[in-house]
Structures are given as structure tokens and as C-alpha cells.
């Protein structure tokens, strides 16, 4: 990695040169410099949320772009290549355009994801069955804890025309 080496034609050079000067001697305006900072000789970009991303030169940016693309190519792109690079703490000025162009030109990234769909069905008893059995026939389960619970909760229900209704606090049917 080219952490401390910045060539003359690198996009980072003017920013580093200006940040190295005292504030009154800087040639770039504050708006251009406000999101950048030097930390141990490396240039960082401060994102809106305050996270720092290391500024990469063109060669290192291309290496990172292709490395991350090769790792994620063909996977579902719920998280775009650009966002993955941001999460890795990378920044260069045209990162969004380059990552979008690379994804658009890659046939594996354009293929629809292969989702394996599984439908799980469980055959469970209706929660109302114990209450219906108790209210219709007085039948209770054999477990004593369930007997007490069903007998207490059954007071909240009433059957009307084979439909189980809950009784509200005011006594009306819900």
C-alpha cells in the first residue's frame, strides 16, 4: 500500500500540501478542506456521520475496487460495491462512479440473485381449541397447570353461533 507516498500528479497532493500549511497560509478555501484531515501523515476523509475513510491514490483505489468486486461478484447486491468500499474505510473522489460503472459492466453482477425459497408450514392446533372444548363440552386437558389456566381464561370468552368471542371489560362482545 502507498500509505505515505503521494506522487505529484496525485489528487491528494494539493490537499495534503494545504493541510500541512498554517491555516492563514492555505490557498484552498475552507469548504474544500473541511472534510479532510491528516493523521500520522496519511490523508483521511471525514464522512457525514463522522467516520474516517483513508484517501487512496488511483493505483491503490483500482486495486481495492477490483479486490472487493472479485470477492462480492455474483452475490446479491443488497449492499452495493460503493457501500462496501465505504464500510472498509476507503475514499477517492470518483469512487461512486467507478464502482457503479464496474458493476454495470459485469455480467455476473447483473444476473438476478439465486434465492433459495423455502416455505415452512407447521401443523399447529388452533389456539382457540382448548377454550372451545371447555366451553362446549366442559372438557379439560390432563395437565393441572393447563386446566387452571384454561378455566381462568375461558371466563373471558363466550360462544355465539359457533364463533368464539372475547368479552370486553365493559361486558360487550369483541
Report on the structure:
The chain is of the alpha+beta class. Helices cover 39% and strands 13% of the residues. The chain has three domains: 10-55, no CATH class; 57-116, no CATH class; 128-166, no CATH class. A hairpin with a 2-residue loop joins strand 1 and strand 2. It is elongated, with a radius of gyration of 33 Å. It starts with 12 loop residues before the first helix and ends in an 8-residue tail after the last strand. 9% of the residues are buried. The mean pLDDT is 85. It comes from Macleaya cordata (Five-seeded plume-poppy). This is Integrase zinc-binding domain-containing protein.
Key structural traits:
3 domains, Integrase zinc-binding domain-containing protein, 174 residues, four-stranded mixed β-sheet, 8 helices, two-stranded antiparallel sheet, alpha+beta
Task: Give the count of structural domains.
Answer: 3
Give me the number of helical elements. Answer: 8
The number of distinct β-strands equals 6
Shape: elongated
SSE order, as H and E?
HHEEEHHEHHHHEE
Mean pLDDT: 85
The percentage of residues in β strands lies in: 5-15%
Structural class: alpha+beta
Query: How is the main sheet built?
Result: 4 strands, mixed
Helix content: 25-40%
Q: For the CA atoms, what is the radius of gyration?
A: 33 Å
What's the end-to-end separation, in Å?
69 Å
| Sequence of strands across the biggest β-sheet | 1-2-3-4
**pLDDT below 50 for ≥5 consecutive residues: which ranges?**
none
Protein name: Integrase zinc-binding domain-containing protein
Organism: Macleaya cordata
